[in-house]
Design a protein that fits this description.
Pfam families: Por_Secre_tail
Strand order of the largest sheet: 5-4-9-8-7-6
Radius of gyration: 22 Å
CATH topology of the largest domain: Neuraminidase
Organism: Chryseobacterium ureilyticum
Oligomer: single chain
CATH architecture of the largest domain: 6 Propeller
Number of helices: 2
Structural class: mainly beta
Helix content: under 10%
Protein name: Por secretion system C-terminal sorting domain-containing protein
Shape: globular
Keywords: Signal
Number of strands: 31
InterPro entries: Secre_tail
Strand content: 35-45%
Length: about 400
């Protein structure tokens, strides 16, 4: 097995290139109502638009998973891949798919960002009614387990979209209810909890951003939404319609009302305006990143760090800055059965090192990364999840 050591400047160079494709957005036309314009890439750090991937006028090729063939959709209905009422988007980095749903529709679409081919997942699990705004799917994100999750306005359907044996399967996980401590800030009430978007953390908990600016933490195990607080630092009439996590693991929000993007500190819920796009109508945001996933060496507590913990680009970064460590350390990667898959030497000079470890021969799954010093003492064990 070949092993590669890359200098640190290449790591930063790679990060800068990746930032240009950090976010995906559903962008609308400059109208007062929802009117889909295009899917596009955004720089998630400065909020600047880059490539348009697919527009309302793009030629479409729709493959139906149920009918196992190409289908022709009615462009005048809500049940089509370019419907005007787009509101929910996630990014499946393992398959390079934009996953989305139009409002007023139970259809789920997988748009390949490279080939532009679209797969239609028809299902009878999603219960969307055109006359019931509570039932519309408006929040969607990728979980840290690699599955797609979506929630309707009232929390009455919490969906998981997973891929099994080459086919997408939709599962209704149940009804999300308010935590008893929420009081008037109800997750299920239109004034305080409807619309918006959601993001995930590395423990597969979800943070739902309501259009009102309220933030709720949702535990999929308990099926409860706990009120976290309300975003400050945005205009009073700002409608939060999109949220995603950028490469620096900062939360960014966007609005459908033709407004700037804001970066939000999830600890304080204080928002800071980004310098990029100032007048985009953004209906939803998506990225491959998660909150509380370590991204930089500054996050390490003992001068040793391995990041990211969710691996979708076939490498991890090892950072060491510890005065008690020197010489040659051993890095071993084990699968969950205890089998040693990768063994590599880390050379520490002047008590520090930054190295990129490539994992291209690892299949999807969970692994333990272990680092030992020259005496054989374990100085760090960390679990990683390889998703691609």
């Amino acid at each position: 097995m070949k092993k590669h050591l890359f200098p640190l400047f290449l790591l930063f160079s790679s990060a800068n290139v990746q930032a240009q494709q950090d976010f995906f957005a559903i962008v609308g036309k400059e109208t007062s109502g929802i009117n889909f314009s295009d899917f596009r890439m955004l720089d998630g750090i400065n909020g600047t638009s880059t490539e348009k991937i697919f527009t309302s006028d793009s030629p479409s090729k729709i493959f139906s998973q149920t009918r196992r063939g190409i289908v022709v959709e009615d462009r005048n209905s809500f049940n089509n891949s370019q419907a005007v009422t787009m509101a929910a988007l996630a990014y499946d980095s393992s398959n390079n798919n934009l996953v989305y749903m139009p409002m007023f529709s139970s259809n789920i679409y997988m748009l390949n960002a490279k080939t532009k081919e679209i797969t239609l997942i028809e299902n009878d699990v999603v219960r969307v009614s055109s006359c019931d705004i509570n039932s519309h799917i408006t929040r969607m994100t990728t979980g840290s387990d690699g599955n797609i999750y979506a929630v309707n306005n009232a929390g009455a359907q919490f969906l998981q979209i997973s891929k099994k044996n080459g086919h997408y399967v939709v599962t209704d996980l149940g009804i999300i209810k308010d935590d008893v401590s929420n009081g008037k800030n109800s997750f299920t009430a239109m004034e305080s909890g409807f619309g918006g978007d959601m993001i995930a953390d590395m423990e597969n908990n979800f943070y739902v951003f309501a259009a009102s600016g309220n933030v709720f933490k949702v535990s999929p195990k308990e099926l409860k939404a706990k009120f976290v607080g309300k975003i400050t630092g945005i205009p009073d009439n700002y409608s939060v319609n999109g949220s995603a996590v950028n490469e620096q693991r900062k939360v960014v929000i966007a609005s459908a009302k033709g407004s700037p993007l804001y970066e939000v500190d999830l600890t304080t819920l204080q928002a800071k305006k980004l310098p990029g796009e100032q007048n985009l109508h953004i209906y939803d945001l998506a990225s491959k990143h998660f909150i509380n996933d370590k991204v930089s060496p500054n996050n390490s507590s003992n001068g040793i760090d391995i990041y990211p913990t969710r691996v979708d680009e076939h490498y991890i970064n090892v950072h060491i800055n510890n005065r008690n460590l020197k010489g040659n350390l051993k890095l071993n990667i084990y699968d969950l059965s205890g089998k040693n898959i990768i063994a590599q030497t880390l050379s520490v000079k002047d008590n520090s090192t930054d190295q990129k470890i490539y994992l291209k021969e690892l299949i999807k799954g969970a692994y333990i990364v272990s680092i030992t010093d020259e005496a054989g003492k374990i100085v760090m064990n960390k679990k990683i999840l390889v998703t691609e």
